[in-house]
TrEMBL record:
The keyword Oxidoreductase applies. PANTHER family: 2-HACID_DH_C DOMAIN-CONTAINING PROTEIN, D-ISOMER SPECIFIC 2-HYDROXYACID DEHYDROGENASE NAD-BINDING DOMAIN-CONTAINING PROTEIN. Pfam families: 2-Hacid_dh_C. This is Glyoxylate reductase (NADP(+)). Keywords: NAD, Oxidoreductase. GO terms for molecular function: NAD binding; oxidoreductase activity. Coiled coil: none annotated. Residues 123-293 form the D-isomer specific 2-hydroxyacid dehydrogenase NAD-binding domain. The lineage of its organism: Bacteria, Pseudomonadati, Pseudomonadota, Alphaproteobacteria, Hyphomicrobiales. The keyword Oxidoreductase applies.
């Protein structure tokens, strides 16, 4: 988000004005309209499939909610037409068809919603410990002192140390907690107050609150399964703000029913949304929200800033930022 822009107040004669299909709304259009490259912006009709784009376009700005869940299994005839770059609003790409990722360079909205998601995580942790809504007295008879939980001395486990994981660390540090983090890549340096975890099993064993902030890949699918949950403390509170398929939901429900873990806060599920009558909807130990943890921040402004940085780079012919890596799957 702090990437420096390559600005040029006058478009060079050698720079062709990019033709941009915009599926991200009026605010993004307004941010791009005055760009020095003089882009021709085509607003995509809301009632048209997101892959049915103007064939002359070389840039596509899109998001999962544009209708990609209805995409055909095989790429449409002519795809990707003249596209040379696709910018997505989301960090994860699992909502898109595989053929969208197997063509022009794809850049993602990495880190855009890290702050509101981290605030959601903090709210979930404090809500679990303090239980303010649960202890509200409804009568004089219910007016009783009930001991509340505390974060001091507790262990916060974080699986995934991208922008979301780092934002969570910043917010929980002042509460006097122990922080353990599992990350895929090697630790390049020591982070004060953060202790690395060697495996998901080791992380689960010590965590009182476990935050899932991992990308959804073939390696992370069903990462939290029955075997992993069997290692958990009975006090464990699981928080998933990543993707539903990282958790084996049947194993999670069984662990909750049998009292082997204490609770879960789920902003994502598999499938999403869950089918009617799924026990996840009214389970007494689950706080369920409809994939909203990313909302409430300045995500539109941050997305616009990120897109402008990449539009600068694209117009100058230099590498783009936050490119999707097909090998890592994020």
């Amino acid at each position: 988000m702090n990437t420096l822009r390559i600005e040029n107040k006058r478009a060079s004669i050698s720079v062709r004005s990019p033709i941009v299909v915009n599926q991200l709304g009026a605010e993004i259009r307004a941010a791009l309209a005055d760009h020095w490259s003089r882009p021709l912006i085509i607003d995509h009709p809301a009632d048209r499939a997101p892959w049915e784009i103007a064939p002359e376009a070389d840039v596509l700005l899109t998001r999962p909610l544009a209708g990609w869940h209805k995409a055909p299994a095989e790429k449409p005839a002519g795809w990707p037409f003249g596209l040379r770059w696709i910018q997505t609003a989301s960090t994860g790409v699992d909502f898109f068809p595989a053929w969208l990722l197997d063509g022009p360079v794809v850049t993602v909205g990495r880190g855009i919603s890290a702050d509101p998601i981290a605030e959601y995580v903090l709210a979930a942790i404090l809500g679990f410990e303090k239980r303010i809504h649960d202890i509200r007295p409804r009568s004089r008879e219910q007016w009783k002192i009930t001991p509340l939980g505390s974060l001091s001395g507790k262990t916060i486990g974080i699986a995934g140390f991208g922008a979301i994981g780092r934002a969570v660390v910043e917010r929980v540090k002042p509460f006097g907690v122990n922080i353990r983090v599992l990350r895929r890549s090697a630790w390049p340096y020591v982070i004060p107050g953060v202790e690395p975890a060697d495996s998901i099993e080791k992380l689960v064993e010590v965590s009182d609150h476990l935050v899932l902030a991992l990308p959804a890949t073939t390696r992370t699918a069903r990462l939290i399964d029955a075997d992993v949950l069997a290692r958990a403390k009975t006090s464990l509170h699981l928080i998933n703000v990543a993707r539903g398929r990282i958790v084996d939901q049947n194993a999670l429900l069984q662990a909750l029913d049998e009292g082997r873990i204490a609770g879960a806060t789920l902003d994502v599920t598999d499938p999403e949304p869950p089918p009617d009558y799924d026990p996840i909807y009214d389970h007494p130990k689950i706080v369920l929200t409809p994939h909203v943890s990313w909302t409430g921040g300045e995500d539109v402004k941050r997305l616009a800033d990120k897109t402008l940085v990449n539009l600068d780079a694209y117009a100058h012919g230099v590498p783009l930022a936050d490119v999707f890596d097909r090998n890592l799957e994020y």
